[in-house]
Specification:
By secondary structure, the protein is an alpha/beta fold. The protein has a single domain, classed as TIM Barrel. It is built from nine helices and ten strands.
C-alpha cells in the first residue's frame, strides 16, 4: 500500500518521511491553504535532495507557467491538480512529470463518467470529499468508499479525506483492482503543515 503524506512545510519532516519509507509527499502551492509552502522550504535544498519518496506539488486551477516553474525550481516528481484543470493541461504536464488528478466525490457522483475525459492524460486519480476548502484545509471528513467499488476507474487511484490512524483496518478492508494508495493530511498533524511523525509511523506499521 502506497502512502502519500500531504501538506508538508518543513525540510526536516520530508527527510523523516523518506526515512519512514513513505512513498509520496505533497507540497501545497495553493496560497489559500494553511499548508501553503511559500518560502518555508528552500527551493535549492529541495531540488538537490536525494529522496526515494516522490515530491508532489499540489495546485488549484494554476497557470501552466507557474506549475512548470515549480517543477523546475523544486525538482518536483509529480503534480496533483485539485481544481477544474482541463485534460489538455494534464496531457501537457504529463510530458514533464507524473500527474495526479483529484476529484471531489459526493453520494450521487458517477465516477466513471467524471474521470473518462482524463483517462489518457493522467498517471493517477485521487478521490476526495468536499470542496477546495475542505480538501486542502482539512476538515477530516470521509466519503462513502463503496461508491468506488461500483466503478471501473481503470487507473491507479488514491483515497483521501479524513483518514486517521484508527482507519488502518478500514483501509485494509477496502478492495478495488486499481486501489493504489492512501493520502493522509490533517489527522496526522500537531498544527497545520506540521506532522505528528509518531502517528505517521504508527499508521505505516498498521498498514503492513
Amino acid at each position: 500500500m502506497n502512502i502519500k503524506v500531504c501538506g508538508i512545510t518543513e525540510m526536516k519532516q520530508l527527510q523523516q518521511l523518506d526515512g519512514l519509507d513513505i512513498d509520496f509527499a505533497g507540497l501545497i502551492f495553493y496560497k489559500e491553504s494553511p499548508r501553503y509552502i511559500g518560502d518555508k522550504i528552500s527551493k535549492k535544498e529541495l531540488k538537490s535532495a536525494d529522496f526515494d519518496l516522490k515530491k508532489v506539488g499540489v495546485f488549484v486551477n494554476p497557470e501552466m507557467i507557474d506549475v512548470l516553474d515549480a517543477i523546475d525550481e523544486y525538482g518536483l516528481d509529480a503534480v496533483q491538480l485539485h481544481g477544474d484543470e482541463s485534460p489538455e493541461m494534464c496531457e501537457d504536464l504529463s510530458s514533464e512529470v507524473e500527474v495526479i488528478k483529484a476529484f471531489r466525490v459526493t453520494d450521487g457522483t458517477d465516477i466513471d463518467k467524471m474521470v473518462a475525459p482524463y483517462d489518457a492524460v493522467c498517471d493517477y486519480y485521487l478521490f476526495d470529499t468536499g470542496g477546495l476548502k475542505e480538501s486542502l484545509g482539512g476538515t477530516g471528513q470521509q466519503f462513502d468508499w463503496s461508491i468506488l467499488t461500483k466503478a471501473k476507474i481503470e487507473k491507479p487511484f488514491f483515497l483521501s479525506g479524513g483518514i486517521g490512524v484508527d482507519d488502518a483496518a478500514k483501509v485494509k478492508a477496502f478492495t478495488h483492482p486499481d486501489f493504489f494508495g492512501i493520502d493522509i493530511n490533517s489527522r496526522f498533524e500537531k498544527s497545520p503543515g506540521v506532522k505528528d511523525m509518531g502517528a505517521v509511523l504508527q499508521f505505516r506499521q498498521a498498514m503492513k
